[in-house]
Specification:
By secondary structure, this protein is α/β, with parallel strands linked by helices. It has one domain (2-267): Purple Acid Phosphatase, chain A, domain 2. Helix content is 25%, strand content 30%. The protein is built from 6 helices and 14 strands. The chain has helices spanning 11-28, 49-57, 75-81, 126-139, 154-164, 210-218, and strands at residues 2-8, 33-37, 62-64, 99-104, 107-115, 144-150, 170-174, 184-186, 189-192, 199-200, 232-242, 245-255, 260-264, 266-267. The strands form 2 sheets. Strands 1, 2, 3, 10, 11, 12 and 13 form a 7-stranded mixed β-sheet that branches. A 7-stranded mixed β-sheet has the order 4-5-6-7-9-8-14, covered by helices on one side. The longest helix has 18 residues, at 11-28. Bound molecules: fe (ii) ion. The site of fe (ii) ion has 6 residues, from loops.
Length: 269
Amino acid sequence: MRIAFIGDIVGSPGRSMLKEHLAKLKEEHSIDFVIANYENASHGFGVTSKNANELISYGIDVMTGGNHSWDKKEVVALFDTHEILRPHNYPPEVEGTGCKVYDVKGEKLAVLNLMGHYAMPMCENGFRVAQATVEELHKEGVKNIFIDFHAEASSEKRGMMMLLQGKVSGIIGTHTHVSSDDFQIAEGTAYLSDIGLTGCRDNVIGMDAKTPLKQFLTGMKGHFDVPKKCKKILQMAVMDIEDGKCSNAYKLKVFDNGNIIKTDAWIEL
Ligand code: FE2
């Protein structure tokens, strides 16, 4: 199967890039299944039901979340009706789940959403939850496993790779909104510390630069806004997975002028 992963979709600029490009990318790259992170999709904070339906209509199969999953309260109802996950290491009494198994071309694919520890809400230990969940999935005969690891620290993301290398098909980080340059495949596990945002590529991590600059210059906090006009980018990882192993992977940076930069993941021998 060939799956694609899109990181943090930030506000209407991110949604508009998907509207414009996703269907074409799916067709041109023969993508069977699309996973994307929704946690900043509605003006930078959470997702409304209207925007969730809109994103699904553009061709997303399942959406993953993070620390902003609950910013729009209506998301809770969507956990039962839509393919929308939240980090699996929130305590069990919290609504929703962070792990679901899907049928892709007659094969099982588990999508597991986890959250890191540094600068994140207090939750269960993501590493222990990851270990236990992957073990459980293997017992159930699920080999193809993709993880969106929503974390601030690249050291935690790298640690997750060291923990699960050879046991899952892919681990890609989200949350920083800034893409890293370490896409690789080791022991059949694709790994990228952060895929980077889909939205405004100028300003500050997808948000209007005015508020963060005021904060950095004066220490005064303010409300973050998504710019109305900006330069946009769509960032997507594509992975070929068979029998639990990723054999080939690449990343696409799609610019709003139609230019595309393709970068292959390197394979560790
Ligand atoms: Fe986040």
